[in-house]
Predict the structure of Centrin-3.
Amino acid sequence: MQQSYNMNGVNSYNQSNRNSNFEVSSEHMAEIKEAFELFDADNDGLLDYYEFKVAMRALGFDVKKQETLELLKLYEPQNGKSINLSNFMSLMARKISERNPEEEYRKAFRLFDNKGTGIITAECLGRVAKELGESLTQEEIKSMIEEFDFDGDGASKNFISISFNENEFIGIMTGNFKN
């Protein structure tokens, strides 16, 4: 479900974007609010610089110190040292709506492909599943890969060598895969 989030609540933002609506899902909005509440360590209804930076990172935005300071000044011009929930939600809605989904999937692929081989192997899937606290059998992993290895380049009977490539991964993530 998509939801428009109006930027009119932002204290200071350039005029062309200030009145813009950004389409983000209600799930994203709930995730943004949850991140704010989780990282508002002192429960004062504001995120200071450090809380703000960590909350943004938790939402997938690894911003540098200078950008973090600039965002605080843009969204909270009175003090420039903290951000409230409303402005945080506006900012994050904008940043999420500006994401390039394919680039996000490519980044995710690189997390799986930690050796930089250009393929996700059964070993990589098993490693990531374990890091996420999931226990998958070799058969479950093999089935996952075989289901989406459309060009057959990794559908080997040898468990260790089964794999799928970046384009297959993006197809899976976007739902645009061809079987």
Observations:
- Residues 101-173 form a domain with the Recoverin; domain 1 fold (CATH 1.10.238.10).
